[in-house]
Amino acid sequence: MSPSIISLLHGPDQPGIVAKVSGWIHDRGGNVLHADQHLDRQENVFFQRVEWDPASGHEAREDSEAFVDFAERELGMSVRIALSDDRPKVALMVSKADHCFHDLVLRVRAGEWNAEFAGVLSNHEDLAPVAESYALPFLHLPMSLESKPEVENRQLAWLHENGVELVILARYMQVLSGDFLERVGCPVINIHHSFLPSFAGAKPYHQAYKRGVKLIGATAHYVTEDLDEGPIIEQDVARVSHRHGPRDLIEKGRDLEKVVLSTAVRRHLQNRVLDYRNKTVVFD
Amino acid sequence: MSPSIISLLHGPDQPGIVAKVSGWIHDRGGNVLHADQHLDRQENVFFQRVEWDPASGHEAREDSEAFVDFAERELGMSVRIALSDDRPKVALMVSKADHCFHDLVLRVRAGEWNAEFAGVLSNHEDLAPVAESYALPFLHLPMSLESKPEVENRQLAWLHENGVELVILARYMQVLSGDFLERVGCPVINIHHSFLPSFAGAKPYHQAYKRGVKLIGATAHYVTEDLDEGPIIEQDVARVSHRHGPRDLIEKGRDLEKVVLSTAVRRHLQNRVLDYRNKTVVFD
Amino acid sequence: MSPSIISLLHGPDQPGIVAKVSGWIHDRGGNVLHADQHLDRQENVFFQRVEWDPASGHEAREDSEAFVDFAERELGMSVRIALSDDRPKVALMVSKADHCFHDLVLRVRAGEWNAEFAGVLSNHEDLAPVAESYALPFLHLPMSLESKPEVENRQLAWLHENGVELVILARYMQVLSGDFLERVGCPVINIHHSFLPSFAGAKPYHQAYKRGVKLIGATAHYVTEDLDEGPIIEQDVARVSHRHGPRDLIEKGRDLEKVVLSTAVRRHLQNRVLDYRNKTVVFD
Amino acid sequence: MSPSIISLLHGPDQPGIVAKVSGWIHDRGGNVLHADQHLDRQENVFFQRVEWDPASGHEAREDSEAFVDFAERELGMSVRIALSDDRPKVALMVSKADHCFHDLVLRVRAGEWNAEFAGVLSNHEDLAPVAESYALPFLHLPMSLESKPEVENRQLAWLHENGVELVILARYMQVLSGDFLERVGCPVINIHHSFLPSFAGAKPYHQAYKRGVKLIGATAHYVTEDLDEGPIIEQDVARVSHRHGPRDLIEKGRDLEKVVLSTAVRRHLQNRVLDYRNKTVVFD
Predict the structure, then answer these.
(1) Min Cα–Cα distance to chain C from B40, Å
(2) Total domains present in chain C
């Protein structure tokens, strides 16, 4: 069976966009399966996710390219396109904590997501045996202040050689340099262990304990040069009380981090997330 | 400023519906503000909510009638239509409990919803002073097994005379007869104080206490002849523990009932709810 | 029937406190109904809430005074005491928003809490008719930068004359001066319309919209001289999406503010909250 | 360092229990770390969880036995006792689904709980490689209607030989016989993939889809002879919409099942759960 085509569009609003998009698909014999849209009235920007089956006999890849051409030229929109059977290559970057690592790998193995793990990059070797138990390539590159530029170069080389289309920071405890982000060439999703913008920076659970909050949170976001300031994809919280010390918050936070990161990655892989002006539109 | 037009469509799926609907609106100079759709693949039924501004100079009422004509004749769909400045008349039916009553009236007064209260019907006179304090007409008709048919006749007469378009059972403790439901001529929304289908019937909080559940719930649904079996619009739950006796559950449940009922009514009044085969599609 | 006695204790931890407290109560013929305790191991501070029925024939007031004497002298603890039939006098301070106002007054009228409203203080007269409809005294004192000290004096005089034991800022849009807080002589609870410490300060919903968070929150806290920095009693959040503009956040936030503020006030009135070092212990 | 002692008591309420228990501990030089209690006023049953450090130089095991003796003889209470460094042996029973299996094993390996896996019992061999990858013994015994009594005998023999103190049904798709439950000699915790009592029995997600509920749930409970009727330890829910078909509910349910089952097991292993009259008291 032919895959369906998924398109994510955005650009300046204009009359009749919805009719033009669905008209183009219909004229070419396609059948719309899902369509969702959003208009940011403050910025006058239009967003759409539309998924359709191409006409029988059509090549999905070919139709999708024709659509990109149409949407860019005739509508002046930015377009991202995917086919429902795409299996993008994903790389994990980790340090020592393994809870998000296990969670993500097990989801891919259970067939929850259309994705393929290219491998694991780490500045520590602690998780090498775990990666091996999952038969995943593991690139261990220790990092110091001096070696950082050189190590990032080698990481980038590895990501490019392996055709990685999404990098997930699964509790990776190094800050990616602006240079790395500029050259990586694909989105990078990070899990921050606090309810941003609260407790940005280091040791958020200790900060939360000190402030005496009654809920702790976790935030998954695209990584930008501004540390902990990138577009938020997903957040969630869990209730805590005076009985929870910093260690309890850390343990409770692990479950939260797994759920929030996996939800963000799932939506990204399902091509449901558009980011602009440091915010996201998530079509769910 | 002219109001926008909101249409709720459903019917057998067919190729190109989305293109035809948006094409019709575009051809007539309208501009789509929101569109959401759903395809039930098991039943092959297509659902859509679409909201648009008619062309400047057009009469919204006129365009909406033309659209109904188009959607019914050319697409063979069932259509419901509303204008964004409609203020449907709503009647409350109550018994003795007043928490949902206050909550709903205060929301309308705060301007949260486009609606107008026609009045309050009750089988008890306890809430007459409250209705008076809100300057709402109050129709008190005591009800016994014998008088039920006669009382329901008078209630129906009142609802029809006052042009009521939505009836809300705000903890009304009488079962509406099949005859009443057949003749009422508008939707009836009820709040049930349990997480249906658990604990249907009487005294759900006592049932919940007895079973030792760890969450209690509330359910808002359209009323049908099958008691507590109508299409569910909204549900929510709250955490309880062994410390909560039946009275605590009742008190905790009050807040839940207010939130669930008001959410259901809001979505209904925003024309976001379609029901079919005893389930609902809620476009939110 | 004689009321029960509720004691809130805290002080340096020491061996056998639990045994000494329950032993004292038992020796005097009392019967413990509830007891909850907490040990902050970092600070070595012990906290306890204990509720008991005095021996039949005993005067609750008398026993409670004897207990305070015992706990202060023999255990060196700080003690707060209440009887289960106390009905503390509460004052509301409001500006123009009325949602928390209605919510609190209706809960007291529904008998949810043991409390009595002494009256309403406002820097605007908008809510005078509402206060009147609830038969509540309404003290309207407009406030400017110049008049603030004088107005606060008059507010304090009113609070003292009326024996107010708890002040609730129900969306009161003025900052209380340090002088006011020093002289008010009772706790002041505020509702902040954000998930503190995120978005402290003005217009939190606009800040939240700008940052693109996926959850908005509300925070109830005791007021201290450090604006928005007082001990947090309760917090909660609600899910939002890219579809919600600042106005939607404000509307959605209203329900959140009502629930969070009323939960905090309920727990305070049930003598379940102890604050120390800018955090709270909430025995629930 | 000596372990602390944890006691779970319950029995008919009587004056001064709290004082007697804490007095006994204090007299023996112990220091109470936590104490929580509950009085079921309807049944007049008293429950308590108390944790204490024995006096330095005392043997925890010895003191705990003395306490049991005291509580049974002098207070007439039922007592369960544990030491904080106990590592009870746990057995998993599974069929084909592996999500709860992975989740539980990874938590034990991460050191979240004090427990040791004795092994895995299954009526299918699908999960043998997974068990092997975790170095866990795997007992595969296929089961038919005829072989059930014989297979259960062999399962019981294995459990007894291995000193198993808790059995977890991690999506085990066979009903345990009354005979098995009578002879197993330790608690059995099951995860049911619905919000009981809704949708008891088979295929709960299909039932939930058909009814059109807006929340799905999962329930962890102790297993009794009455299928799906045992005392509930923990429940939770997740929001669903018309967009979710039965397969989506199954996938979404997996995360819910993991969280609910692991929460129940954690509380059981922390000796926080008492069951009586088909309900639980959970001291958290």
Answers:
(1) 24
(2) 2
D47 and D274 Cβ atoms separated by less than 8 Å: yes
Q: Are residues B134 and B219 in the same domain?
A: yes
Residue C188 phi, psi dihedral angles, 5° rounding: -125, 125
Q: Which of A243, D20, D54, D32 is nearest to C15 (CA)?
A: D32
Q: Domain boundary at B83, B118, B151, which?
A: B83
Distance CA(C115)–CA(C164), nearest Å, equals: 11
Residues D117, D159 within the same domain: yes
Residue B1 has pLDDT above 80, yes or no: no
Q: What's the pLDDT tens digit per position in D141-172? A: 999 999 999 999 999 999 999 999 999 999 99
Q: Residue B2: its pLDDT value, please? A: 86
Q: Cβ–Cβ of A99/D106 closer than 8 Å?
A: yes
Question: For residues C182 and C198, what is the distance between their CA atoms, to the nearest angstrom?
Answer: 27
Residue to mutate among D199, D215, D226, with most B CBs inside 10 A, is D215
- Cα separation of A124 and A122, whole Å? 5
Q: Is D110 in CB contact (< 8 Å) with chain A?
A: yes
DSSP secondary structure, B199-236, as one string: T-SS-HHHHHHHHT-SEEEEEEEE--SSTT-SPEEEEE
Q: Which chains pack against B, by 3+ Cβ pairs within 8 A?
A: A, C, D
Q: Are A256 and A237 in contact (CB under 8 A)?
A: yes
CA end-to-end span of chain A, whole Å? 25
Domain holding D45: CATH number? 3.30.70.260
Residue A197: cis peptide before it, omega within 30 degrees of 0: yes
pLDDT, position C187: 98
Residue C1 clears pLDDT 80, i.e. is over it: no
Q: Does residue C52 register a pLDDT over 90?
A: yes
Whether A224 contacts chain B with CB within 8 A: no
ipTM of model over 0.90: yes
Residues C128, C62 share a domain: no
Q: How far apart are CA A276 and CA A10, in angstroms?
A: 9
Q: Within B5-147, where are the H helices?
A: 17-27, 60-73, 99-109, 128-133
Which candidate from B18, B33, B36 shows the least CB-CB separation from A22? B18
Please, are residues D284 and D272 in contact by the beta-carbon 8 Å criterion?
yes
In this predicted structure, the answer to whether residue A15 has a pLDDT above a threshold of 90 is no
pLDDT at res. C70 = 97
User: CB distance C18–D34 less than 8 Å?
Assistant: no
Lookup: tokens for D232: 């509930």
pTM of the predicted model as reported, rounded to 2 decimal places: 0.95
- Taking the C-alpha atoms of residue A183 and residue B190, their distance in angstroms, rounded to an integer, is 58
pLDDT tens digits, one per residue of C168-219? 999 999 999 999 999 999 999 999 999 888 888 889 999 999 999 999 999 9
Residues D273 and D171 in one domain: yes
- Please report the pLDDT score of residue A154 as a whole number: 98
Unique residue bearing structure tokens 């110091």: A144
Question: Does residue C106 sit in the same domain as residue C46?
Answer: no
**C-alpha span between C69 and A244 (Å, rounded):** 32
Please indicate whether, in this complex, the C-beta atoms of B19 and A34 are within 8 angstroms of each other. Answer: no
Using pLDDT thresholds of 50, 70 and 90, give the confidence band for residue C109.
very high
Positive or negative, the CA dihedral D134, D140, D143, D147 is: negative
pLDDT tens, A26-49? 999 999 988 999 999 888 999 999
- Kindly state whether residues C171 and C39 are assigned to the same domain: no
Are A38 and C242 a contacting pair at CB < 8 A? yes
> Chain C within 8 Å of D12 (Cβ-Cβ)?
no
Domain that holds residue C179: 89-282
- Report CB contact under 8 Å: C213, A231: no
Beta bridge partners of B218: B236
Contact B196, B219 (CB under 8 A): yes
**More confident call, B32 vs D168:** D168
Q: Tell me the sheet residues that pair with A82.
A: A6
